[in-house]
Design brief:
Blueprint: H1 8-18, E1 25-26, H2 27-34, H3 40-49, E2 61-62, H4 75-84, H5 89-96
Parallel strand pairs: 1-2
The structure holds a DNA duplex (13 and 13 nucleotides).
Length: 106
DNA sequence: AGACTGACATACC
DNA sequence: CGGTATGCCAGTC
C-alpha cells in the first residue's frame, strides 16, 4: 500500500493537506495537482480507502458541481466538518463554481 | 495476473 | 435546462 513515497494517493493526500481551512476544492482540482488531471476517479478511490484521515482533510474535497459528493464516514460527517470551519453548502458552491478556483491555486 | 470497483466529470440527448 | 450515458485513473479484490 503505497509504502513508497510518490504514489498517487500519497500525492493526493499531500494536495488535500494543502487546502487552506475554510476552503474547498474539487476532486478535479486535486487530481490535476496530483499529476493526473483525469484521475479524479483514482483520487476519490484513494481518499475512500484513505489510510490517513487525520492528516488529510478529505472533507475539504467536494464535487465540481458544488455538491459535497460523498464521504466514507457518512456525508453528514463531512458536512459537519465543513460547517465547523465556517463553511456552508452555498459557500462551498461559491468557491467551486468560481471558474479559476479549479485552475488556479488558492 | 486479470477484472471490478469507486468519495467524479464531461458530453450528449 | 435536466437527466442520462459513457469515459477515465489508480487502487483494491
Amino acid at each position: 500500500m503505497r509504502s513508497k513515497n510518490g504514489s498517487f494517493d500519497l500525492k493526493v493526500y499531500d494536495v488535500v493537506k494543502t487546502i487552506p481551512r475554510g476552503q474547498v476544492r474539487s476532486y478535479a482540482w486535486v487530481a490535476k495537482r496530483a499529476g493526473s488531471p483525469r484521475a479524479w476517479r483514482a483520487v476519490g478511490n484513494a481518499l475512500n480507502k484513505n489510510s490517513h484521515p487525520i492528516i488529510v482533510p478529505c472533507h475539504r474535497v467536494v464535487k465540481s458541481d458544488g455538491a459535497l459528493g460523498g464521504f466514507a464516514r457518512g456525508p453528514r460527517r463531512k458536512l459537519r466538518l465543513l460547517t465547523s470551519e465556517g463553511l456552508t453548502l452555498e459557500g462551498i458552491r461559491a468557491i467551486i463554481t468560481k471558474k479559476g478556483a479549479k485552475e488556479n491555486d488558492a
